[in-house]
Amino acid sequence: MANPSLDKDMFFRRIKRLYAAWKDGEVGTDDSFSKMDCLLSAVGTDFDEDEDRVYSKSTALQ
Questions:
Q1: Where are the domains of the chain?
Q2: Which residues are within 8 A (CB) of 25 and not within 5 positions of it... i.e. 6 or more apart?
Q3: Contact 42, 56 (CB under 8 A)
Q4: Which Pfam families does the record associate with it (predicted)?
Q5: 4 and 12 in contact (C-beta within 8 Å)?
Q6: How many CB atoms lie within 10 A of CB 19?
Q7: What is the pLDDT of residues 9-62, one digit of tens each?
C-alpha cells in the first residue's frame, strides 16, 4: 500500500475557502453551511514514525 501524503499548502488554501464560505454565507438563503455553529477539521498523526508521542493536539478530539 502506498504511503498517504498531504500537500500542506493545498490543505490550507482549501480550508481557508471553506472557512470563508462558512463565515460569509448569507443567513437568509437556504444555505445550510452558513447556518452551522462550528466547523471542525480533525487531523491525525503517523504513529508509526513517532510512537513516543501519545498526547498531541491532533488526537485530543478522539
A1: 8-61
A2: 31, 33, 34, 35
A3: no
A4: FACT-Spt16_Nlob (PF14826)
A5: no
A6: 12
A7: 998 898 888 888 777 776 666 666 777 777 776 666 665 655 666 666 655 555
What per-residue confidence (pLDDT) applies to 22? 77
Q: Cα dihedral sign for 10, 7, 54, 61? A: positive
C-alpha cell of 51? 510512537
Three-class SS string for the chain?
Answer: CCCCCCCHHHHHHHHHHHHHHHHCCCCCCCCHHHHCCCCCCCCCCCCCCCCCCCCCHHHCCC
Query: What pLDDT does residue 24 have?
Result: 77
Q: What is the pLDDT of residue 42?
A: 67
